[in-house]
């Protein structure tokens, strides 16, 4: 006889169950409870407009400047509640469970929650005023918050002061060494332009001290207590120049800092911006620089917001900007905007009498940096230095002194200390005397006096100068045609004309 199969046991009977209705009732109950427990509550839609406020919230309306609920509801929350963060909650979908809100209605402890639909999309936000005037109910927390805020503000002030200190001028006008008429005139002009806020254009060959003068002008100006920010345009890739100058908005491009980055103009706000090698600035960026100079406002990369700036610009170049304008390589309007206060820095060969003072100061700095005793110069060494043309100017003079000082064991440098045998790189500056002369090439008369032999670099330089002068005469001063005739680039021709400006004026 087979056993009977027992029917399944039902522990919970199946009853009609409206789950959706229960959830709606629970949500409404929770909503009502929050409205009663909170000091005030509001609901904002996805477009940031206020769609509902609780009865408790209505008592804040007079302090916010509204006479009735109808004036308040329907307005964008940013317009009617100063310092609110409701819009950020809607945009990010992240709640702000506890925050302090301060505006003209008072200080409040608030909470902000995003509201989502069934698909999980943010459709608005719920704002609750948890405590009115929490400074009385939460005194210890508010006191701690205030202390932390003061400490943060103090740290920011100290950081800003340190940044300004690190960007102070390294030189003053007295740092420009020399008492020759040319040096004295440069220092007189520098003091004069320092008293204005106009743009300065420093013109001169490489190594003449243009950057030193930029620092000196800033130090003598009314902006000396503010930052001096320097940018070497030739050292920054073209693709990065715009971001370097104008800054980057948060998230402007892939890999950009989420917080954004200030550009050099913003860092120099209130102070001075030194633009070295301005002649190397790409044409597309020149128009943007012109706008900043004219309007004193900029737009960071990836931003539509215009930011005002107060910056005094000092530009410098070793190139012939006027010739570049004529050749279409530099904007004429930017050139005129920069060339407000031009200041020519003379080459070293135009102030040979300053070499002794320069050599003494440079020797002292070389000794300090190397940790070695300062080497003195004999009269013969000084004569040797004063006979050079110094195409590299003061930078070349320093290089020559440093090499001779480090390679010589003697405490006094003589003309022999600068002999090319001391270092191959000094060959371009040395004029050694050789006891044995090589046989001259066929067709060349031998020199009867060793004093007639000029150093090879000087002879090459003279030959180069004569060739450029002849090419300019043959082309009636057309520099582009002269460069083609000489089979050199226009840039190379401009560099040589900057060394011999009289050729370009012939």
What does this molecule look like?
By secondary structure, this protein is of the alpha/beta class. The protein has helices spanning 19-37, 61-64, 69-72, 77-80, 86-92, 134-137, 139-166, 181-194, 210-219, 238-246, 264-267, 283-295, 321-326, 332-338, 355-370, 379-386, 393-407, 456-474, 479-486, 490-499, 501-504, and strands at residues 40-45, 50-53, 96-103, 106-116, 122-132, 200-203, 228-232, 272-276, 297-298, 307-308, 312-317, 341-344, 376-377, 412-413. A hairpin with a 2-residue loop joins strand 3 (96-103) and strand 4 (106-116). Helix 15 crosses helix 17 (393-407) and helix 18 crosses helix 19.
Task: Briefly characterize the structure.
This protein has 506 residues and is an alpha/beta fold.
Walk me through the topology:
Layout lengths: L18 H19 L2 E6 L4 E4 L7 H4 L4 H4 L4 H4 L5 H7 L3 E8 L2 E11 L5 E11 L1 H4 L1 H28 L14 H14 L5 E4 L6 H10 L8 E5 L5 H9 L17 H4 L4 E5 L6 H13 L1 E2 L8 E2 L3 E6 L3 H6 L5 H7 L2 E4 L10 H16 L5 E2 L1 H8 L6 H15 L4 E2 L42 H19 L4 H8 L3 H10 L1 H4 L2
Parallel strand pairs: 6-11, 6-12, 7-8, 8-11, 13-14
Antiparallel strand pairs: 1-2, 1-5, 3-4, 4-5, 9-10
Descriptors for this entry?
506 residues, single chain, alpha/beta, 5-stranded antiparallel sheet, 14% strand
């Amino acid at each position: 006889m087979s056993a009977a199969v027992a029917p399944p046991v039902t522990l919970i009977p199946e009853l009609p169950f409206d789950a959706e209705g229960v959830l709606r009732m629970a949500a409404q109950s929770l909503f009502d409870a929050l409205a009663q427990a909170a000091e005030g509550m509001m609901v904002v839609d996805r477009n940031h407009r206020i769609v509902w406020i609780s009865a408790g919230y209505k008592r804040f309306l007079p302090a916010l400047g509204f006479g009735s609920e109808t004036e308040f509801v329907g307005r964008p929350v940013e317009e009617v509640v100063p310092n609110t963060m409701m819009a950020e909650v809607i945009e990010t979908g992240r709640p702000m469970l506890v925050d302090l809100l301060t505006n003209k209605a008072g200080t409040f402890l608030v909470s902000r929650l995003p509201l989502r639909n069934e698909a999980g999309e943010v459709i608005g936000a719920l704002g609750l005023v948890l405590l009115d005037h929490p400074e009385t109910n939460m005194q210890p927390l508010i006191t701690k918050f205030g202390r932390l805020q003061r400490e943060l503000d103090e740290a920011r002030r100290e950081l800003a002061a340190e940044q300004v200190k690190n960007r102070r001028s390294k030189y003053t006008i007295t740092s420009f060494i020399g008492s020759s008429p040319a040096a004295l005139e440069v220092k007189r002009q520098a003091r004069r332009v320092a008293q204005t806020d106009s743009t300065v254009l420093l013109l001169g060959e490489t190594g003449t001290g243009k950057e030193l003068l930029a620092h000196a002008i800033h130090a003598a100006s009314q902006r000396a207590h503010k930052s001096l920010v320097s940018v070497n345009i030739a050292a920054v890739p073209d693709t990065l120049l715009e971001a370097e100058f104008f800054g980057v908005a948060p998230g402007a491009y892939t890999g950009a800092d989420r917080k954004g980055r200030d550009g050099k103009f913003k860092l120099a706000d209130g102070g001075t911006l030194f633009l070295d090698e301005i002649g190397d600035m790409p044409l597309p960026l020149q128009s943007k620089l012109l706008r900043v100079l004219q309007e004193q406002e900029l737009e960071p990369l990836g931003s539509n917001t215009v930011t005002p700036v107060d910056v005094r610009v000092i530009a410098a170049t070793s190139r012939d900007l006027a010739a570049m304008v004529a050749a279409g390589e530099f904007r004429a309007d930017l050139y005129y905007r920069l060339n407000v206060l031009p200041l020519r820095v003379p080459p070293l060969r135009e102030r040979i009498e300053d070499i002794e003072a320069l050599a003494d100061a440079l020797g002292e700095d070389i000794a300090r940096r190397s940790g070695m005793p300062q080497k003195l110069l004999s009269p013969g060494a000084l004569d040797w230095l004063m006979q050079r043309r110094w195409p590299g100017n003061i930078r070349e003079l320093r290089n020559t002194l440093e090499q001779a000082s480090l390679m010589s064991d003697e405490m006094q440098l003589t003309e022999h200390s600068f002999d090319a045998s001391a270092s191959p790189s000094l060959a371009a500056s040395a004029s050694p005397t050789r006891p044995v002369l090589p046989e001259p090439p066929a067709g060349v008369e031998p020199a009867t006096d060793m004093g007639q032999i000029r150093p090879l670099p000087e002879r090459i330089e003279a030959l180069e100068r004569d060739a450029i002068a002849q090419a300019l005469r043959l082309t009636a001063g057309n520099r582009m045609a002269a460069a083609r005739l000489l089979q050199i680039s226009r840039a190379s021709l401009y560099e040589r004309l900057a060394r011999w400006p009289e050729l370009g004026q012939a």
